[in-house]
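Standup notes
- DV: blocked on the single-chain target, sequence here:
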Amino acid sequence: MSAHTPRIFARDEGDHFDLLGSRATVKVAGAETGGAMTVIEVLAPRGFGPPLHRHDIEDELFHVTEGALWVSCDGQEQTLGPGGTVWLPKGLAHQFQAVGENATRFLQISAPAQFEDMVAALGARLDDAGLPEPVEIDPAKVAEICARFQVEILGPPPAPLD
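- DV (later): unblocked, structure below
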C-alpha cells in the first residue's frame, strides 16, 4: 500500500485491537498516507475513558457516529452525540469518556501518523468486531508505552459520569 492507493472499508472492517477495554479498528494506517495521518474507529463501552493525557506529536480529531462522548480539554467540557466533532490540538491535556446508553462509536483521526503503532503496542489483536472482555489494566505499563510515543499520562481516567 502507498499514499496513492485508495482503500474502501465496510463497517467493522480493518485490523482490530483491544485498546484498554475498547475496540480500536485501524481504518487507515500511516504507511497508507505517507505518514500524514492515522484513522481509527473506536467502539467504547459505557464508562470507557483513558487517563488524562497530552500528545506531544499528534493533533487529534474525534467524530462521534453513535452514542455519546464526554470530552474535556483546556477548560472546555462537552458531551457530544452523533455528528459531534472535537478538535484536540497537540500539547493540550485532555480526557474523554463514553457516556452513551450503549457503546459509543467514534472516529479518531490523528496527524501526523503513529497512533496506530501505539494502539498495537498497548493492546492485543482481536479476531472479531465485538467489544473485548474487560481486563485488569496496568497503569505503569500504559504510561511506559505511551511515553515511547510521546504521549504523557497526567492523571487518572475520569470518574464515572452519569
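- Follow-up: The mean pLDDT is 93.
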